[in-house]
Description:
This protein has 454 residues and is an alpha/beta fold. The protein has helices at 22-31, 66-79, 105-114, 120-123, 132-148, 168-184, 200-203, 237-243, 286-289, 299-309, 327-336, 356-359, 371-382, 393-403, 406-418, 421-424, 431-443; strands at residues 8-11, 45-48, 55-59, 83-85, 155-159, 188-194, 207-211, 217-220, 230-234, 256-264, 270-277, 310-318, 343-348, 363-365, 447-452. The strands form three sheets. A seven-stranded mixed beta sheet has the order 9-10-11-12-13-15-14, with helices on both faces.
Amino acid sequence: MRRTEPTTTVRTPALTPSAPTRRVCEAARMLGMNLDEHGSAPPIEARLPLRSGAVTLITGPSGAGKSTLLRAAAVAAREDGRRIIDPDSLRLRAAPIVDLFRAPLDESLRLLARAGLAEGRCFVRRPGELSDGQRRRLRLALAMHSAARRPSCPTMLVIDEFGAGLDGASARGVAAALRRAIDDSRNTGAIVATTRDDLAPALRPDCTIELDMTGAVRTNRRRESATDRFIIEPGSGADVKRLSHLHYRAARPARIVRTLIAREAQSGELAGAAVIAMPTLNAPWRRLAWPGRYDTGDKRLDARRMNDEIRRIARVIVDPRCRGVGLAARLVRAYLDDPLTPHTEAAAAMGRWHPFFERAGMTAYHTPPSERDARLLDALVHIGIEPWRLASPTTAWMRIEQSGAAALLHRELNRWANAAGSTRQHKADDPQHLFRIACAYAGATPVGYAHTSH
């Protein structure tokens, strides 16, 4: 026997029409209307699941009573002891978005990543510099953070005109991000109202209330199935080029051997790509992932084995409108299901906060800084340059010059550049330019990932 979900009856208040003014009567006479037959709209009654973990979608044309029903549902939820949060009413301070959360930095970055804002360029921007879709995601992240800070208090998100003003892909992305956030939460549900008819597959509501202009109410309490929004297929360099501006590292990866792309099933639009390339010579996590296999002491043997047995996932790029719904992990999993070699590896600076490689089945390896990076960082701290200052090389270099330690650091930079083949060519560069390169290497702490196919 199917279990019946507890619901609450929500009824909109009956409104007594005001007496028509003379101008109203004159307008009605010219249109041949009988005002006695056009009184107030009848009350709307519907049964909604006002519980944590449930999403209710109210749809219908403008004027059908969606907003009125939404307000009545909010009143019922509040009377049921729930805290009401309207994400669209949250005030956004004119500060970098990573500073908007009352949480440690790591937690703030994870919250943004879960909302589909896992991009370095987003973190440093202010709300006014984001797209409309990104601001909706930010408001969602802030609302969920507010709910999570009071875990013992059940919360209901109430959102009117959901998806209004967004293109199709952005609206579906925000809808999927909301569904994911509610599924991950222990104390939060959501009720949204919209005129759009394209959001149900992404939102997967537990209850859908359809209104029309006659006052009829249709209720569907069957949760939408998680139909696949994306199609994964082989891609080309042209596809990667179309998406490359969306990645913080715009340069094309070297020695590409395969490309996979994702398209939206509904629109056919390009949504993301995974770029597979040959391995680099140096990867500190290899000794942990495959002990003794690629560090035999015979450099030629090691290089031959790496080229024969390893491929690297060099880029995973997802259109911002489609982020936060697991697409990056799907692209990685699609490659791991049919790899070119027994071993696959990757590295991600965002790995600590956005572990999509792990969700795809790869194993994470958190390695300490290399010996050359550790020595350079130690020298910088010795002259008063904290590691966080490396995010702004120009300002950091000015402090170095003011400290009178530029000559000392130049020697350390030459030593640093000469310690690896990838940077040896830069050891004769202008010191400030070399310092800028070193900041990009030594400042980042990427997570390494490995996978073995059986």
